[in-house]
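Batch 3, record 17
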Amino acid sequence: MKHFRVANLGLIIILLCTGILLTFFTGAQAAFPEKGITVILPFGPGGGTDMLTRAFDVYAEDAFGHNFIVNYKPGAGSAVGTTALKKESNDGYTIGMGSLPHMYLQPASGSGRYTLDDFDYIALIASEPQLMVTPKASPNKTYAELKKATQGKPGEMTLGIPSPLSETWLSYHIINNKENLGFTVITYQGGGDMNAALLGNQVEAAMTNIGPVYGEIHNLNVLGVTSTERVSFLPDVPTFQELGVDVVTSVERVFMAPKGVPPERLKVLREGFKKIWHNPDFQERVKKMRYGMKWIDGEDVRSYLEEEKEAILDIYEKTVAEKKK
Amino acid sequence: MPEISIISLAVNGLWNVLSPYGLLLCTFGISLGIVVGALPGLSSTMACALLVPMTFSMQPSTGLILLGAIWCGAIYGGSNAAILLNIPGTPSSIATAFDGYPMTRKGQSERALFIGLVSSVVGGIVGVLVLLSAFAPLAALSVKFGKPEFFWLCIFGLSTIAALSPGNAIKGLLGASIGLLLGTIGLDPIIGIPRFTFGTEMLIEGIQLVPGLIGIFAFAQVLELTEQKSVVIAEYKTTPNLIRNVFGELFSTCKANLLRSSIIGTFIGMLPGAGGPVASLVAYGEAKRWDKDPKRFGSGVSDGIVASESANNAVIGASLVPMMGLGIPGCPTAAVVMSGLLVHGILPGSKMLLESGDIAYTFIMSLLLVNILMLFIGYGMLRLSANLLRVPTRLLIPMVLIMAVIGSYTLRSSMVDVYVMLGCGILSFFLGRAGVGAGPLSLGLVLGPLTEDAFNISLTFMQAKNSFLEVFITRPLCIFFILLTITSLCLPVLLDRRKRKKLLLNRKRKVL
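Prediction for the assembled complex:
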């Protein structure tokens, strides 16, 4: 009886060892990723960021062997989704899209409970400038005219922005700090809402991304764009620098993962995204959707963000402090 | 000659849709939509959002046909659950339950379902015809409707509380106030300060409409059903001469109501931001107000279903007016459909007619066809869904509960929404015990955030213009809605008083 038990025990130990060894080997051999990577989008389905992610998804099978699983976590202008990503597992199977300047402003205002240090960065993939526009019927068809119209009556004219504490909020305030336009800012619930007000002549101007207004851009006066060079598909729109206002702003998108992804997996992710982004077919596809594309390698993203953050938080503090006064 | 080209575009579009593939897509979309819509928890927006990625690989017009068919199907499908189980399948069919469920309890489920179907089809066609005939000029008009006007429209919407709370107006007001209060939970939309979150992160996003409504209706109904002793919800009886019976009624006694509700749905649908729930609730309120005997509403009358269902289906075509005309989605579902266009590089808006008019008109004509096809497909599926009543309550309860949890969770993949659903359900159940109906409660929840946003923005305008009158009052449409609200509040009181006087006079005469 006793021998039998010992023999049994021995057998079990041997089996266990082979089992562990086997899983170790297969584990070591199976390449990451073994299954689809989940992408947490901090915005709802159907928006610009969704379509951008879907464009990546078209080539995901080439790069990773699996399609993405897109998981929408919209709310509070991306604060909810970004905070949620921080809490996800850092095995490399869950990544997310982050937006800037949201990721500078939200922790500062308290609406987002995360910091730039909570993430490992895969790549910076897109960058888009903002536009200042007026309704077609407006008498102010150029920036100079609009500026002149605002002088001497602070707060009397209205300017619409599509969401609070976002890139458009920031770019207006950066311009305002230099130029003293003094608009009353009307905060709408999204691009469609703001667009309706603009086309219905209910606001006197608006600061917006290109996406929401591009379809009806012939029904608007576009006064200026906040990029360093003119936008290829809006060749007649001057940059603010050309107008003598030294302002450059943009909304940028990054792919990132919760901090602590194993280095070899992070490498796979970075290389995969690099491969997709540099694919001419992909570039053609996003060009058709009029995306502003920009590339920064994953290793360099954090230092770039830290640098940007300081300048932007400076403006934020100033603006908010002034409002409190 | 732009008019000729529009007609040829429309004919071409119809031709595209009538291809075997187009018809197949419509049939598939409608059937899928009805099923998804009927499941409590999956709204039309969700159904379209889940299918949009599938359309990315399709031709733009094919993808649109599919999305349009699912949308129409889902809005009608929502009425099935509302009528049979007292659980609106989509937020747009809240008002359908008010009279649909009592009809089921009376054994008239089949009739109620068919009335819902025919009204949906009529409303849907009215909406599409408006879209087809004049979307460009109407879109230009719809953006003239500013936030102050929207604010007064919301106030007018709130004035229908009286109509939604039969018997006791005070309890109705109480319910609506609780609904409005629930709507204030979460980040303040302007300053971003958390309200009523009790210091937790959970409620920072507020009570989302869909889980809130699933709780108020589905979970509360589950609790209600657990108390019921009978084996099934209601007896299932077939109605003899169903088609003749319903058509006869709808196109004689309900004619005016059908037309009025379709027009209300079309009007509200065209305004960016309101959508199906508001339209059907307002149409229901109006149907009751204009009725000769308003007291019969809520006891299971056809007019209630007619109002709600024709209005919410009219919203579909109408909410595409600002999208097709100016690239502004009229409601959340329209926004999802729009992304199906954008991904192909097609920009909906005033240039669409020139650049991709064929796609636009194929889509519009497909909606028309979908509505006609829905009459037949819906009729075919009618008995199938009515059979739900044969399912014993003890099986129905877990089924509904599972759907409610899944529906709440999938919205944002978050357990918070499930807790919100459960919380709202328990609240609604106990309020129901106290005689406070789910109708006013949901009205408050639907209109609260819309009203607040419109009010906040109007206030900012007031600050800029430095004039209360200019922003809030002296605009033609503002005055119109203010007057409408005042009449809607005073009319019942005046009528009541007159009736009482008459009664008194009669009595006096008798005494004399």
